[in-house]
Description:
2 domains; 9 helices; about 0% strand; heme binding; membrane; Cyt_c_assembly
Amino acid sequence: MGTANWLYDTILYVYALSLLFYFSDFMNASRRAKRIGTGLLVFVWVLQTGYLITRLVSHLDLSQISAFEYWLCFSWLIVTVSLVMSRFYSIDYIVFFVNVVGFAVLALNLYAGAAQGNENAVGQTTRELLYVHISLIVCAYAALTFGALLAGMYMFLHHRLKSKRWSKFVRRYPSLGMIERFSDRAVMIGVPLLAMSLSIAVTSLLVEGRIVLLLDWKVLSSFAALVMFIVYIYQRARNRRTGEQLAKLYLIAFLVLLLNLASSAFSSFH
Length: 270
């Protein structure tokens, strides 16, 4: 059973990494990111196939197949269809969004497997999802903090260049274009990780019947921060805002995220 849990956790983490590269392609039409994302997704398909076959072989009597196997098969079909679409059709956006659904189903399905056991199994599954949630949210915070520092550097350098206040200190800064590129990469990593971690948290609350916590300040502020970053991505994609305006918008979104961190003392969520 321990090996099975380890394999399932590996599938979740590799799936999440694949979505990061697909999101990078979604943002910047990067062929390299798409190839890596597709390669990781193929690896997910291989692991899922092996895991699914193992589960089905242990339940040769189809009448004994549980909801866990059904949803595992559903997630496997999503990955399979998305790989076929990616190979033969140029509709990359739908491949990304379909696999976001597939990842959510795979995470939720942990509870379906635990429900077949006793209360200790459900508790163990909850802890496993909590580990996934914490891992994703910590990486998201790190990436978005890095982006916020770059946004602050952009505003400082832009102000110095605009006012023509040159110095040796300013000359040591990277170019505005380079700061923008690295800031974009921070967003490409941080935003999908934040979204996936929140989806796991909400799934956990719904399954455990703690729906009232969806109105908790920490949960609401987390979604507010996610919405702000999505607004930033939308404005960035439209290309109608200056670099300085985008940097300000990023810092506002990050401020909402900081308020979320500060709200831990007033929250009963964690």
